[in-house]
Every structure is written in structure tokens, then in C-alpha cells.
Design brief:
CATH architecture of one domain: Alpha-Beta Barrel
Structural class: alpha/beta
CATH class of one domain: Alpha Beta
Low-confidence stretches: 2-42, 377-381, 475-500
Radius of gyration: 24 Å
Order of helices and strands: HEHEHEHHEHHEEEEHEHHEEHEHEEHHEH
Strand content: 5-15%
Distance between the termini: 24 Å
Strand order of the largest sheet: 5-4-3-2-1-13-12-9-6
Catalytic activity: Hydrolysis of (1->3)-beta-D-glucosidic linkages in (1->3)-beta-D-glucans
EC number: 3.2.1.39
CATH superfamily of one domain: Glycosidases
Membrane topology: Lipid-anchor; GPI-anchor
Protein name: glucan endo-1,3-beta-D-glucosidase
Helix content: 25-40%
Mean pLDDT: 84
CATH topology of one domain: TIM Barrel
Number of strands: 15
InterPro entries: GH, Glyco_hydro_17, Glyco_hydro_17_plant, X8
Number of helices: 15
Length: 500
Amino acid sequence: MAISNYLLIFLLSILSFSFLSISTPPGETSSNSYFQIKQQQQNEGPFVGVNIGTDIQNMPTTSDLVSFLQLQKITHIRIYDANPDILKSLSDTKIRVIISVPNNQLLAIGSSNTTAASWIQRNIVAYYPQTLITGISVGDEVLTTVPSSAPLLLPAMQSLYNALVASNLHNEIKVSTPHAASIILDPFPPSQAFFNQTLVSVILPILQFLSKTESPLMMNLYPYYVFMQNKGVVPLDNALFKPVTPNKEMVDPNTLLHYTNVLDAMIDAAYFSMKNLNVTDVVVLVTETGWPSKGDSKEPYATKDNADTYNSNLIKHVFDHSGTPLHPEATSSVFIYELFNEDLRSPPVSEANWGLFYGNMTAVYLLHVSGIGTFLANDTTNQTYCIAMDGFDSKTLQAALDWACGPGRANCSEIQPGESCYRPNNVKNHASYAFDSYYQKEGKAPGSCDFKGVAMITTTDPSHGSCEFPGSKNVSNKTKEVVNSNHTSNAGEKLRGEDN
């Protein structure tokens, strides 16, 4: 995963991407009916998969890993090499896997058909079809991270494809290459997006190859970085897939298409960029996306709650089959970055904290995706809490606390001196307890977690030590154990560990 800087020009282009409520004219739908993208992934519809990085101090054994994937009902994974132990362990599991050609192997494969054929024999033919290999990702963000290797990219893809043809596997296994979002300039509004013109001489032949072979355009798309680089312009709710009011929708002034979330806008920017090169039959596959659960002081929005919200809403969004405003008929499949926190990753702190699970296979946080089927975390609690937001002074919080414990009739006995939730003895902690008490008493009714804008709803249990918050008392320990041990989710490329 590369930290993308492609939106440094965002502030200029955003001026024409209005956050307005505009009605879409009749007949001007986002489907552009002449452009019917066929769903890639053979008849199974869109899916959510996970990336599995291995920079983990105590990486599970391959057999334990595969058992864990089956337990979590994870059916699609992407790995960053062609690890023979993993491929062997996946045999007869029905778990679909995309394997990768590391960047350092591009020279050999791109310059020798014999080497490419040998790679296919060794890493595909030796395992298929017992191991369901569905794709090969050739390199990783080559055009932006190792541009000197760009001339080798298409030859390597072609050589691998030709070797698949020789083995009659080219219809089952697709060949593509993951790109960083930064290859697209002026991504907002999406209708004005275009590929970096200095890369077009490489990108266009690759797109033509993808079109000819019916393979997807692989994109690594991170709304987290869009938000971080454009705070004050991109609302956090839009980045997190939260429901937004019409006046918070992003409206493309050229198409009048309404965007409620950043990821859809990024996907449509890729479609418009391809259209500008007259390529209209290639689907976008999101090979990496996610949100870090922990960061340093420079990344205050890297939190468990935001990571939970993003990934939970992402999963729901995919399984809603709603597509994007431009192409509602084509819902992109996604791979979450990533399955495990990679605790051997270099700083910043967030680099080690993109995982859904720790290396010991316990959940970093519990996804809230109940009602969408058996995939990953089937949350049986759907539990939410009300806590004080950061950034407000003690006087403001004290006023809200006084109201909750007074007229609001919240049960504030546990934050009295000597009681279990008295410490830490500060206004924010006491206010959070009182807010949650009121919120739970009111049955989590709309508007019951506001307190003049100083409170927020969270899915992360704020209980600590011997202090059990009111919302947590409604969930039995048995239920918590079942959810933690039997349910979870999936993700992307590399990552780290963290404290609860």
C-alpha cells in the first residue's frame, strides 16, 4: 500500500464539485445505458475479500490461517506473492485467491516468455483447480512507485497471459495490475477526471489488453487519505459511508450525479478516465481499501471506531448491489486492506494498524454488518454507545453533563467518588458515561445522542477496567465471546498490531 498524494490538486478541482442538493433531470440517469459493463467475477456478483500481508511477528501457520478464513466465511483473498504453502493449504477449500508477481520479478518475467511460462507452471498449473486461483496481480502500483519498471509491465502481463492460454486457463484466471489512485488527475468531480498524461503511453495499451482479455482494472482506493489530505473540504461522514443529508451530497456539476460517499466518486473517476481513452468495457476491481484503527498524533482520525464504521459500511455498500452513480448496474468488488495488523511494518503508526484482526487472530474491533449474510463479522449485538466528542472545552462538557444527570435523569451513580466509573476523574470521562446512560435510557432514539453537538455515537465499547458503561450492560459476556471468536471480516495489503 502506498500513501497516495494524488489529491494534492483536490482543493483546486473541488471548487467545481458542488456540495449541493440538485435534482437529477429525468432521463439523465447515471447508467449511461450505452455502456453496459458486464459483471466480472463470473455470475457470483460483487464480493468483499481481504488482503493478507505477512509482515507479522507471529504469523499464523498456513493451516491455521486457512482454518481461520473458513471460520470467518472469507471466500476471497489476495496475497502479495505466490506463497506455495498458502496455495497448497487452500486446496479444496473453495476460497478464491488472487496471487501476485512482486515488483522485483517484473524484469525476469517481462523479458522472457520462457520465464513467464515457468512461473505459470510453478504457481498456477501446479495447484489449479484444487486451489481456486482467479487472478494474477502483476506488480503493485508500478507506475507510481517504480516508474523505471513501467516499460516491463505490459510485456510481463502479456507473457503470463500467453502462458495461461497455452494451459487453457486464460478464461478462468485474469491478469491485471494494481494501480495507485494517483494515476488519475483531477478526480473530483469524477466527470473531469483523466489519467496522468505522462503515463498514457503505458496505460492505454494496458487498458486495451484488459478489454481484450475481459480483465478488470485493479485500483487501490483509500478514502482515508482523501479525507486526511482535504480536511475541511471532504466531510468525514462522506468518507465513512455514513448517511448524509441532501445538502451534504457531492454533486458533479457536469452530470448532476449525486455522490454520498468518496469511494463511489473515486471509482467513477476511474470510469470517466477510461472513457476519455475510449475504453468503456473494463470493470473496476478495488484491490485495496480500508481505514487504519490506530495512528499517531498526526493521524487523529485513525481510530477503531472510524475503521469499524468505514469497513462495516463498505461491506454493506457492496452487498447492496447499488453500483455507483455513473454505473448502478456494475457494483465493484473490493478487497479490504487488510486481514491482520502487520506489526513489523515501519512507521508511521498507522501502517501497522490496518488489519481487522491481530496476528493471534483476535478481532481488533467487531464489524457491524448484521443482516447481509454469512460473510465475515455477523454482529449479533448491533451495539452502539454515546460518548463525548474530542475537542470541546471542559465548561461546555460540564454543562451537558449537568443536564444529563439532572433534567435528563440519566443514572450517574457510577461516576460518583469511590464508584467504579469515577476514574479517570475528568469531565470528558464522566460526561461520556452520563451521555451513554441517557442514550440507553431513551432506547437509542434519534436525537438522544447530541447534547448540543458535543456527543457522538460509537460502536466501540467505552467500558474500561472495572467500569462498565450502561450500553455494555445490555450485552451478556457470553454473546461477546461468541461474536469475538466466531465472526469478523477481511482486508488489504500490509499492516501492524495495537493495544485494545
